[in-house]
Automatic annotation (TrEMBL):
Family: Belongs to the bacterial solute-binding protein SsuA/TauA family.
A GO molecular-function descriptor: ATPase-coupled transmembrane transporter activity
Domain of life: Bacteria
Identification of the protein by name: ABC transporter substrate-binding protein
Keyword vocabulary terms for this entry: Cell inner membrane, Cell membrane, Membrane, Signal, Transport
NCBIfam families reported for this sequence: SsuA_fam (TIGR01728)
One Pfam family per UniProt: NMT1_2
Source species: Streptomyces avermitilis (strain ATCC 31267 / DSM 46492 / JCM 5070 / NBRC 14893 / NCIMB 12804 / NRRL 8165 / MA-4680)
Predominant location: membrane
Entry's localization field: Cell inner membrane; Periplasm
């Protein structure tokens, strides 16, 4: 099944600021885990690089023609961006062709996974938790980590000079129930302020706004700031915003999961060798990124340009890249904490996350590579 275009991202209008405000207002009315209408993400452009092409004489894994992979156009999904651009997934997959779809937020990617539009995806922790619990533990498994950090609260310095000034202001998050939305709602509660999680109204107005729209909405004055991932955070800084808070400072050791790798349980059971090949590609990509940060940064930006039609300028790319830590470790203990945050915010009933992880194949790949294995914090498949 081919993933269709994501709905809900408005075109650039003639009367830009007016329609941006309408788009932001419409985003605020989205129900919990609202999906991008019937679209399950945007099919990546058919712009196969030489590195992505199937090598001559390569064989299919398990006789499978294709594996469908999803990711976001965010630098927090650097593993997927770089692995695709450098052909590192395709290299491990042989003649089983990697096909890709891009998404703007996690809930729509979960819907794509559930529908079979994708098989494997890079995604944030909150959608992973919601997808798992709403399916009674039957839809997905988290099979690896990818990134930590890369999330910031960026504000208009003319309107907000300190953390206490956030009260009474309009602050964007990417989508109701997504990872940054949950983190911001939790932070608001820790300040002693009250906000209705569903409507976003209260002591702070939480505006659910697509990352593609947020910088323009901020520039137009419709937003006072945003709690967002990279590179959106650095785009706001380039528009005159100021980083008021880096979310990593709120976590022990400044580490928290921002991107996981998930797989459909059905696909994992049917094609474990294909899943293992993708994980080999992921581990190899992460190793290459950490050994070659400048080349990896350029590769990620090139893939973003292919996917969106526009590369990031240096004043956005450089600070954004520095704030992200690439890791194979899913940082499972922080997933539990993020689930607790969603419960406190009223977005989720207390979840049973037992079995959400299956790190068997990842640890097999890590051992073969001479790397340290990773832990599931007691939430693995028994």
């Amino acid at each position: 099944m081919t993933a269709g275009p994501t709905r809900g991202t408005p075109p650039v209008p003639a009367n830009r600021s007016t329609l941006i405000r309408r788009a932001v207002a419409a985003a605020a009315a989205l129900p919990l885990l609202a999906l991008a209408a019937c679209g399950y993400g945007s099919e990546s452009k058919d712009d196969t690089s030489a590195k992505e092409k199937v090598a001559a004489g390569a064989k299919k894994i398990d006789g499978l023609d294709t594996v469908k992979i999803g990711y976001f156009g965010n630098l927090t999904h650097a593993t997927a961006l770089v692995g695709r651009q450098e052909g590192l997934f395709q290299k491990e997959l042989g003649a089983t062709k990697a096909e890709y779809a891009t998404f703007n937020a996690g809930p729509s990617e979960i819907e794509a996974l559930n529908s079979g539009s994708i098989d494997i995806g890079w995604i944030g922790p909150s959608p992973s938790i919601n997808g798992y619990t709403k399916s009674n533990g039957k839809s997905l498994r988290i099979i690896g980590g990818s990134a930590s950090g890369g999330v910031k609260l960026v504000v208009n310095p003319k309107k907000i000079k300190s953390l206490k000034d956030v009260k009474g202001k309009k602050i964007a998050t990417p989508q109701l129930g997504n990872t940054q939305d949950v983190a911001f709602l939790n932070w608001i509660a820790e300040q002693g302020w009250k906000v209705d999680a569903q409507s976003g109204k209260g002591d702070v107005t939480v505006v659910r706004s697509d990352n593609k729209v947020t910088p323009d909405a901020y520039k137009a004055g419709s937003l006072d700031g945003a709690w967002v991932p990279e590179p959106t955070a650095s785009k706001l800084v380039a528009e005159g915003g100021k980083v008021l808070l880096d979310e990593s400072t709120l976590w022990p050791d400044k580490k928290f999961v921002i991107t996981n790798i998930i797989v459909s349980q059905k696909f994992l059971k049917a094609h474990p060798k294909v899943v293992e090949a993708v994980l080999k590609g992921s581990v190899g990509t992460n190793k290459w990124i950490n050994a070659n940060p400048d080349e990896a940064k350029a590769a990620a930006n090139k893939q973003l340009e292919t996917d969106s039609g526009k590369a990031l300028p240096a004043d956005v790319l450089d600070p954004a890249w520095k704030s992200i830590q690439i890791t194979n470790d899913p940082l499972a203990s922080t997933l539990n904490t993020e689930a607790d945050h969603a419960v406190k915010a009223g977005l989720l009933s207390k979840p049973d996350l037992s079995g959400i992880y299956d790190l068997t194949l990842l640890n097999k790949v890590l051992k073969a590579d001479g790397a340290s294995t990773v832990d599931d914090a007691g939430l693995g498949v028994k």
